[in-house]
């Protein structure tokens, strides 16, 4: 699932907005060890809870130049921000 700002998830996920985002995140779709995005976002929120001020970006690694753009300008509104 693409987690761009155009997705049904939206540009930001917080503890308060997580319930609204869960249907778009989904769970694991099969018998794999990676789980779905919902469990990953919940783990990210636990990190954010433990480290106030931390922000985590979820974005596609398939789009060339995205990682470089975020490293050069961390505040760019690319993907979904978990905070």
- The side-by-side strand order for the widest beta sheet comes to 1-3-2
What is the gyration radius calculated from CA atoms?
Answer: 13 Å
Order of helices and strands: EHHEHE
* Whole-number tally of structural domains: 1
As a percent range, the share of helical residues equals 25-40%
The secondary-structure class comes to alpha+beta
Low-confidence segments: 1-7
Q: Terminal Cα separation, in Å?
A: 20 Å
SS field, number of helical segments:
3
Mean pLDDT: 84
Label the overall shape: globular
Residues in β-strands, percent: 5-15%
Give the strand tally: 3
Main pleated-sheet profile: 3 strands, mixed
Write a concise keyword list for the protein shown above.
single chain; 83 residues; alpha+beta; three-stranded mixed β-sheet; 35% helix; globular; disordered N terminus
Task: Describe the structure in your own words.
By secondary structure, this protein is α+β, with helices and mostly antiparallel strands. The protein has one domain (12-82). Helices cover 35% and strands 10% of the residues. It has helices at residues 18-25, 37-50, 66-72, and strands spanning 12-13, 56-58, 80-82. A 3-stranded mixed β-sheet has the order 1-3-2. The longest helix is centred in the middle third of the chain and has 14 residues, at 37-50. The radius of gyration is 13 Å and the shape is globular. Mean pLDDT is 84; it is low at 1-7.
